[in-house]
Amino acid sequence: MNTRHKFTIAENQPGIRIDIWLARKLTGTSRSRIQQLIRSGFVKINMLPVKESHKVKPDERIEVNIPQPQKVELKAEKIPLNILFDDDSIIVIDKPAGMVVHPAAGHASGTLVNALLYYCPRFGGIGGELRPGIVHRLDKDTSGVIVVAKTQKAMMSLAKQFKQRKIHKEYLAVAWGMLSPPNGMIRTMIGRHLTDRKKMTAIPKKGRLSITRYETMETFKKHSLVRLFPETGRTHQIRVHLAHLQHPVIGDRQYGRRSVHELPAEIGRQMLHAHKISMHHPETGRKIEFSAPLPEDMMRLLNYLRISLTRSPGLSESRDR
């Protein structure tokens, strides 16, 4: 059964954002959860839907309808995993494109978490109910290295290292066009898109500082192989930043706009790969690094570009080994 709350704004409370105001009133409900309720239409002012940026006014009547949470039972599933490293503290996986990291709406099974529960049953008690051990994520269609904590101590250590920017990640992407300059830094604010809530944007009125360094490794007639080093960890950061430069990732249906008809076969996902990650081991403190080779679909595309298309004169031909 849904839970309903009704409030009336007092004379001395105008000018506060509705999400902040409700976060103060609804004890135990996070601001992010309140924002989700607002976006889904479960919060109304004077019987009308409202945006999370709305600033409350005296005598406005607020109604919050909190739906009963649907219980999602985590199940262990026998799904093959490409394990790069495994000890008592962490497990490092080379995640294939197409695999969701943890259960969410529309993805209750077949996720990395479901696979890890089969491989390591005690993994289920770490962190959160639906995201045990998950400290960072990769998009469904991004392949590559992901590190998962196997103990609470490891999870806390990794979370702290991420917060302090002591974990360093390197991605490889095949992008449209040639970046100018070929090496540089992208520094923007990133926030939720104003009209499409499933997307992020690099030019919001309000957002969070986002920084990505990049190096062009190899160039072709109309494409580039780019190495990227995110210094912050915003949602979709690399994809948003490359699209912001007008050089979106090939195959990115959310942030790219260009056709792939000129390529040899259909590109089924964004050509983005989490290539390397380095950190300090949660137990020993020793510096460790892991890498995942380029997956077959990206290698196939690069081989086609190298063999079939003419390189532009005077551009770099260095390759990642």
Q: Give the percentage of residues in beta strands.
A: 25-35%
Q: Spans with pLDDT under 50 lasting ≥5 residues?
A: 311-321
Q: What is the overall pLDDT average?
A: 86
Q: By CATH's scheme, which homologous superfamily of the largest domain applies?
A: Pseudouridine synthase
User: Quick one: how many beta strands?
Assistant: 14
Radius of gyration: 22 Å
- State the helicity in percent bands: 10-25%
Distance from N terminus to C terminus (CA atoms, Å) equals 57 Å
CATH topology of the largest domain: Pseudouridine synthase
As an assembly, this protein is: single chain
Shape: globular
CATH C-level of the largest domain: Alpha Beta
> Structural class, from secondary structure content?
alpha+beta
Give the helix tally: 6
Structurally, the number of domains stands at 3
Order of helices and strands: EHHEEEEEHEHEEEEEHEEH
